[in-house]
Design brief:
single chain, 86 residues, alpha+beta, six-stranded antiparallel β-sheet, 2 helices, 27% helix, 38% strand
């Protein structure tokens, strides 16, 4: 578990190191809401589940802005989040 304040920076740092096809998940404490990011070459596939259930693709350039928006929507009151690589 990591602090919500450092979740975006930690996720972005780990996403840069992920191999092609690797997945990074950020989950709430109860693990009923979250974000899953899968690396597909030089692009990323973002799947959010919980408040909204949608999947979208983005480039590395727009990844930080998209993740910041999604984290605010999916984790409105969270102080800690689970971080899982796979």
């Amino acid at each position: 578990m990591i602090d919500m304040g450092s979740a975006l920076a930690t996720a972005l740092a780990r996403l840069k190191k992920l191999p092609d096809g690797g997945t990074l998940e950020l989950l709430t404490f109860k693990r009923d809401r979250g974000v899953s990011v899968r690396r597909t070459g030089d692009a990323y596939e973002i799947r959010e589940f919980g408040y909204l259930d949608e999947t979208s693709a983005t480039t590395a350039k727009d990844l930080k802005k998209r993740l910041k928006t999604i984290l605010k929507r999916e984790f409105p009151r969270s102080n800690k989040v689970h971080l899982r690589e796979g």
